[in-house]
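Design review, sub-item: ligand-bound model
Attendees: FS, YL, KQ
YL presented the inputs for the alpha-L-arabinofuranose complex:
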Amino acid sequence: MRAIQIISFALCCVVFSQKAPAQNITFNVQANKPIAEVQPAMWGIFFEDINFAADGGLYAELVKNRSFEFFSPLMGWKEVKNENATGKILIENRGTASENNPRFAHLIVDASIGSFGISNEGFRGMGVKEGEEYNFSILIRNDQNSPVSLFVELVNSEGNKIGECKLDNFTPGWKKYSASFICKATNAKAKLNVLFQGKGALDIDMVSLFPHNTWKNRPNGLRSDLVQLLYDLKPGFIRFPGGCIVEGRDLANRYQWKNTVGKVEDRKLIVNRWNTEFSHRSAPDYFQSYGLGFYEYFQLAEDLGAEPLPIINCGMACQYNTGEVVPINQLDPYIQDMLDLVEFANGDVTTKWGKLRAEMGHPTPFNLKMMGVGNEQWDEQYIERYKLVAKALNEKYPNVKLIASSGPSPDGDRFDYLWKQLRGLGGDFVDEHYYQSPEWFYKNASRYDNYDTKGPKVFAGEYASHTKGGTAPESRNNWEAALSEAALMTGLERNAAVVQMASYAPLLAHVDAWQWNPNLIWFDNLRSFGTVNYYVQKAFANNKGTNVVPVLRDNQIIEGKDSLFASAVIDKKTNELIMKLVNANSSSKTVDISVQGVSINAKFVTAEVLQAESMADYNTLDFPFKIKPKAISIKASGKNLALTLNGHSFYVLKVKYK
Ligand code: AHR
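KQ shared the predicted structure:
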């Protein structure tokens, strides 16, 4: 009886499968029919000082509030008295005598025995590593010739000394004193004690501690692990400095590039606009020291082989905050700042700003080719200001391309109004931003298939798929989000004739000090990792090719049917065909890829898959490579490649052709 049941069940299956035979899915790649050039700068990065991305992050300075210019001058500092020592700290303000760095600390020290001084907590602690060299420096003025010595101590979270150096012979007048030491133990939450012995009074300012091991070992440098992650992305451009930080909460709080160049001690610190923007993630100790300023930015872009893409304030503060605008008849200083930035980047060393660049160490130009006018601006007041800025820039620097805003949303009245106006004005690029759900991302993989290729080009200047995530901050950077970004990016890639630059946002976030979530790279004081979204970005940027070629299913673009998404490029320099394939379905799909118009070399087929055990999976500081690309082998014969796309997976497939 049981045997009969099994046979009849088997027969049913045969009948069922005969009625609905499994359909072969065939993708035809027309490798000999390039439809658009891929711009070398296509896949870039968006840097904004949000989430402690600059101070406390990429900028390797370990001392917070080094120049006592925070609203509370001793924020981040604590008085320290050892043994019987006593003393006093007075904050003095020089006012216009030192306009950009008016405050300093006057210390009265009575420490014949013991020591008196101050201790700095760093940015949620200081991350220091065993065996590494650290460079301490300080400005001291000893006008009274006080016989005091300075003992610098690095202490771990338990208060034990793990590094030290000594300085003395302080003379009248301000002078910089420096010393280095090797750190004896690794600690993520170290502190720096700046302790004086002896009796007398003196002034201190610009107290600084840097690892020697910065990116390219540069003084005033950047954290090498974070730059390495950026370098590995091979970004085509870097958007900088944002983001809303360009606009400021009000005009006084806007980003002014001239305050960020020249001697570090003369850069005018400003409160970071993300300081108390979100009450649930308030960071009252968040300021912009501008140690990482426009010079360091241009230098970073050069190091990464990326085009600089500065975004400049156009006389408008954040329209979500005060929405302050400068009257049209007072816009000239803003326009002049933009013109001067081009001179700083590209000008001859005999020009005012080109000379400053040379004095800072870079006589050759940075070759700036494009600029953004405002961030997320909208309405008539933006168009009015954009027109004046564009006129002045086009007249003086006709080769610098301009990027205009389409507001904060990827659709709606503001967006439509701005696009219409900007098409009319014949601008170069329009910046679109989308922070949306994974569903939106899948749906919008075809967004650009019908865009007008003749008008301004699209710069997808900020985007990220937003899911709910779990309780850990990094959990919003999960596979569900990243897979939907990969799907959308096939649509960006396919439409290279209209979409010519794209950047995920934001870039960096400190796990203990973030304001915005999700982000591409997370870090603490010692470690950093690329999210799974990072690996999606890397897959596109490292495999951008030179020309888009059609990849079709039943003569149709592949943009979501059966939850499959695909795009293809060829690289004329390496003779490679590169495909990106997304299966957003939970079940696997087998596809036959038929490559037309070229002969593929079956010996040179490589493929990588990115997938996770669950859509909620994400990388963390403890498990940074939980989800990362894995190499797989592919069957190839003649012109065909056969591939089973696992459920919820993203593939990059490369094959050499003749
Ligand atoms: O990326 C974070 C913020 O999102 C940017 O500052 C702003 O442009 C956007 O609204």
